Amino acid sequence: MNSERSSLSEEEVFKIEYDSKIALLRRENLRNDELESVIALRKLYANRIMYFAIGWSIATFILIILNGQNYIHFNLNSSVLNTVITISLGNVFALVVVVAKGIFPINSKT
Fold first, then answer.
1. What secondary structure letter does DSSP report for 104?
2. CB 89 within 8 A of CB 57
3. Which pLDDT tens digit goes with each residue over 45-60?
4. Are the CB atoms for 47 and 22 separated by under 8 Å?
5. pTM score of the predicted model
6. Cα distance between residue 33 and residue 56, in whole Å
7. How many CB atoms lie within 10 A of CB 92?
């Protein structure tokens, strides 16, 4: 390596070092751009999960209100209503957990 370096002029050595530093900076910039896009997508999908869970909870609440008020002769048996509420909220919770773990993995490099 020293024999190669001594055969190169100072300008050539400087140019090689400069090019390698520029390549390293470009690689770091690409990595930062990738991380920024991953963060933006995670925010987007985290918000969508939250809105979906809120919407589902509101729909379940409306179902309970409609059943309790007997509006337009809407009446479910209490065991059916309990089953619908339990299953729907359990499904929403499981969906949120599964999607959130997919978006925000524990052992992630990003």
1. S
2. yes
3. 888 888 888 888 898 8
4. no
5. 0.62
6. 35
7. 19
